Amino acid sequence: MQWRALLVFAYLSASIHEAGSQHYGKALFPSASRIKRGTPALMNPTFQHSVDDANLLFEILLAGMEIRGGGRSLLIPDEELASLSCVEKLEVLCEDVLPKTLPDVRRLAAELERRRTPLSRADFERTVLTLVFSAQTAAQVADRHQREMWTDAALRLFRAVRKDLEL
């Protein structure tokens, strides 16, 4: 599948992204600070905190992880990977933090295009996961116009990730 190439790029990008970069200004993912699950550890969640976490995310993506809009947003076909306790943070990210509607994804892409400073590690991770979601959605949408819109959004996110790596 074509989106697997995006996943490989996303993994490689996340692995080499500078961990200490900071961002200023308006929050790109405002819902990250409004998690309603009540667990302090899940406030403003991030999945990757080490190279091992990045490798695990790559393994989960290659296992066929799907991010869906609405309901249970995260599907990990590999039961062993899905049962890991650290996957809870990834579920929270995918279900509660990532934008899932085309207008929200396009808003994120537009904000990223205007940025002149590197993304924080958390925003970079969320942008890459939103790119994965957008690519998967584009591949599944039957309506040609909607597919083109989702593809455009995914390409804009891809360009933003690439630009961030160059900053």
From TrEMBL:
InterPro entries assigned to the protein according to its UniProt record, in alphabetical order: FAM180 (IPR029170)
The entry's keywords: Signal
Signal peptide from the UniProt entry: 1-21
Coiled-coil regions listed in the entry: none
Record has Oxidoreductase as a keyword: no
UniProt keyword Signal present: yes
UniProt cross-references to PANTHER family, sorted A to Z: PROTEIN FAM180A, PROTEIN FAM180A-RELATED
The protein, known as: Protein FAM180A-like
Organism, as annotated: Salarias fasciatus (Jewelled blenny)
